[in-house]
Specification:
six-stranded antiparallel beta sheet; six-stranded mixed beta sheet; globular; 11 helices; alpha+beta; 2-enoyl-CoA Hydratase, Chain A, domain 1; 25% strand; Pdz3 Domain
Length: 403
């Protein structure tokens, strides 16, 4: 049998085109009305499509007008919060702009270092820099910052929280602060450009012996170079050993951690990383190191985290020196920031890092990490303002290593 394919008259075909086009557009925006086979073939029954359908339904049918962008931001924020990872966060477009500006102008703020409170109630003040807005405003070490400009910091990622505090010099920020068991108070501070040295170095003396004391405040770009210059000067002046002070150092760039470690470790593994979607990668020592005969001690505390733990862990595992102080923070994970099409960004944990002996120090971002256990336990007594007991213990330890 021969079948004859009948053609539609041209006028009818022309008339149908707008109808088909309009129908296609409508179905494209309402895929739930497509037959199952067509929906699966054309758009897929994905979670992303379901999420968008929910957003559209709320925006179209809720009894009062809602902002779709705000719904999206809240949904993404809740999604990241469900990970129960204190190091992961969603930045909405405005928050990400503030974060980027704060990162670019890292020296503009109120002049303090902070860490996330153990109970995730806010930010705990670690150090208040001299001649800073924070110092003039009455902030003290140990204070708890619970709100920024009236916005609660409870459960907020530390990077996100600090980005809210930082900002252009001359602008103002209000911090709600709790000191001890006192009632909360609000400080109205004017941001300024704060001169915070990355490296502070001086010679410590014990009898006839001399020890180079170099304190590193953060692992920012170029920190390893500043540290090496300061260290070389003290060694040239006859230092018998080195105390690398990483107390209150919350970390920074992985590349800087490797390069700082390489100042003390000549070759071999410094740290390795691995993630569910990240192949294992080994970072080895690079560049030139100081004389291997120079004894080294790393001074750490509960606020030594991330890159600080990479350096301290490498020096301890490789037998290059001992750790003195208190158990470290325990952050064995690293994050990446991914920009989103709406102008926001995801700052999420993508992998873990491991010391040369394969130790992971974190709890995956969910549980408190084990941290590094010091070889010699020592803590500074805050009541003795003229004596640093932990540093004294570090000096004694490094001189004992050299004998």
């Amino acid at each position: 049998m021969i079948r004859v394919r009948r053609r539609l008259p041209v006028p009818l075909l022309v008339a149908l085109v707008p109808v088909l086009l309009a129908g296609g557009i409508w179905l494209g925006g309402h895929p739930q009305n497509l037959p199952g086979f067509a929906r699966d073939a054309l758009v897929g029954d994905s979670e992303a499509q379901t999420y968008q359908e929910a957003i559209d339904t709320i925006a179209d049918n809720y009894y009062r007008e809602v902002d779709e962008d705000e719904l999206l931001d809240e949904g993404l924020g809740a999604g990241v919060a469900s990970l129960d990872d204190r190091f992961s966060a969603y930045f909405d477009p405005e928050e990400y702009r503030e974060f980027a500006q704060a990162t670019d102008g890292a020296l503009e703020g109120v002049g303090m270092s902070v860490e996330q409170d153990a109970g995730r109630k806010g930010l705990r003040v670690l150090t208040v820099f001299d001649r800073s807005p924070a110092k003039r405003g009455g902030l003290r070490e140990g204070d708890l910052i619970t709100e920024v400009d009236g916005r609660s910091l409870a459960g907020t990622n530390s990077q996100k929280a600090t980005a809210l505090i930082k900002g252009k010099a001359g602008t103002r920020v209000k911090l709600t602060v709790i000191t001890g068991k006192q009632e909360p108070r609000v400080l109205d501070l004017e941001r300024a450009r704060v001169d915070v040295p990355v490296v502070e170095a001086r010679m410590e003396r014990s009898g006839t012996s001399k020890v180079a004391h170099v304190a590193l405040s953060g692992f920012t770009s170029g920190a390893h170079g500043e540290l090496r210059v300061a260290l070389d000067k003290l060694l040239e002046r006859g230092a018998d050993g080195v105390v690398l002070d990483l107390r209150h150092n919350g970390g920074g760039l992985l590349s800087e951690a490797v390069q700082v470690s390489s100042i003390f470790i000549r070759d071999g593994t410094i740290v390795s990383t691995k993630g569910r979607k990240r192949a294992r990668r080994v970072f080895e020592a690079t560049g030139s190191s100081i004389d291997a005969k120079v004894p080294v001690v790393v001074l750490v505390d509960q606020a030594s985290a991330s890159a600080s733990e990479i350096v301290a862990g490498a020096i301890q595992d490789r037998g290059r020196g001992e750790l003195v102080g208190a158990r470290t923070f325990g952050k064995g994970v690293f994050q990446e920031i991914r920009r989103l099409s709406n102008g926001g960004a995801l700052d999420i944990t993508v992998g873990e890092y491991f010391t040369p002996k394969g130790r992971n120090l974190g709890g995956g971002g969910v549980q408190p990490g084990s941290g590094l256990t010091p070889d010699v336990r020592a803590e500074d007594d805050p009541k003795t303002t003229r004596t640093d007991e932990a540093l004294d213990a570090a000096v004694k330890t490094v001189l004992a290593e050299g004998t």
